[in-house]
Design a protein that fits this description.
With 192 residues, the chain is an alpha/beta fold. It has a single domain, classed as Rossmann fold (3-Layer(aba) Sandwich), CATH 3.40.50. 56% of the residues lie in helices and 14% in strands. Helix 2 packs across helix 3 and helix 4 runs parallel beside helix 5. The protein is globular, with a radius of gyration of 16 Å.
Length: 192
């Protein structure tokens, strides 16, 4: 089972590259952001909890996100997952490793999309114009980037210490980024 973590700050291209990886490798997309936005749109109890945090550009609590992920693992006959936007904290990373270990699986590789802060802000403001996402307003964007740097970036060190993290320049054209990601997955994945 091929399990890929696609990692990077908001606006780094995780969603775009996830779609391509899913098609290329036949994997299931696991985007906590998409799941939470769906819950919010349907005004479920989980959605109302998530909305409170997302509106401020903060992370949804670990226990809420982890319960969502556990439900996804119930599906059978999967080739693997592309994790997009999860884990966002070291506690979530440890919980993910524990869940995967319980079903005799592991994270095979972490791909980190590196993009400058200036470019992230530009991309997210542009996305706000196109998609109208409330979490893409400037003050919320700046907070999301700060939260990423303080709370999410340490996840990179966690997987780097396991020899699973590979950095890709996310400032390149979309096709070049995808080729670089596939090169790393095909040559350095710990699941062969």
């Amino acid at each position: 089972m091929l399990n890929i973590l696609l990692f990077g700050p908001p606006g780094s291209g995780k969603g775009t590259q996830s779609k391509r990886l899913i098609q290329h490798y036949g994997l299931k997309h696991l985007s906590t952001g998409d799941i939470l936005r769906k819950e919010i749109a349907e005004q479920t109890p989980l959605g109302r909890i998530a909305q409170h945090y997302i509106d401020k550009g903060e992370l949804v609590p670990d226990e809420v996100v982890i319960s969502i992920i556990e439900e996804m693992f119930a599906e059978k006959n999967l080739k693997g997952f592309v994790f997009d936007g999860f884990p966002r904290t070291v506690a979530q990373a440890k919980a993910l490793d524990s869940m995967l270990s319980g079903i005799k699986r592991t994270i095979c590789i972490m791909i980190v999309l590196q993009v400058s802060e200036k470019e992230l802000i530009k991309r997210l403001l542009n996305r706000a114009k196109i998609e109208g996402r409330k979490d893409d307003e400037l003050h919320i964007i700046e907070n999301r980037i700060k939260v990423y740097q303080n709370q999410t970036a340490p996840v990179l060190e966690y997987y780097k210490s396991q020899g699973k993290a590979y950095i890709v320049n996310g400032m390149q054209p979309e096709e070049v980024v995808f080729k670089d990601i596939c090169y790393n997955v095909d040559n350095f994945s710990q699941c062969k």
